[in-house]
Amino acid sequence: MVNKLIDNKVPVKGLVVFFIVSLVLLWSYFVWDYMNRVLIFASPHDRHVAVLGVLCSASTMALLFLTAMVGAWFYIYHDAGQRGMNQWLWTLIAIFTPNLLGIIIYLVIRRPLLMECPGCQAKIAPRMVFCPHCGRPFRRRCSACGAMIQQGYQFCGSCGANLSATGNETA
Fold first, then answer.
1. Short-list 146, 164, 144, CA closest to 154
2. pLDDT in tens, the chain (171 residues)
3. Could you give the 3-state DSSP secondary structure of residue 97?
4. What is the pTM of this model?
5. Radius of gyration over alpha carbons of the chain, in Å?
6. 66/23 Cα distance (integer angstroms)
């Protein structure tokens, strides 16, 4: 999973470093405040180790959530680009739509990944039969059942016909 995120240009290592450094700084402040009785622990009633533990665990969860959200926004930005969708629009929808609905909406309605044409290297939708730039066919019809078959397949996925033995026509 992490390798897939790194391949999609999500700065996983940078997010982990941000999380750890922020957590260490926040915990250091809590411990300093606890020892010096300055702001949070100024009152003698608040000076309990349990309060310090609750603050540390709550700050851990809040920073983990923030780091995960920023990582999700990076993922949406790069994934939308790979799918031929507007990167900035979908990232802003994910950021400003409340209750994580923007992320859920993006994951539900995103397009399939674009294919690269072996002839001209243009990015095209996977449902296309011919490349709109160079005209190269991507799929052909099975002569036995008429199903659409991708180039390079040896057998039909619908009827099991041997495609190399029969002369299959291009779509």
1. 164
2. 445 544 556 788 888 999 999 999 999 999 898 888 888 888 888 788 888 888 889 999 999 999 999 999 999 999 998 888 999 999 999 999 999 999 999 999 998 888 788 788 888 887 777 888 888 887 777 888 888 787 778 888 888 888 776 554 444
3. coil
4. 0.64
5. 27
6. 12
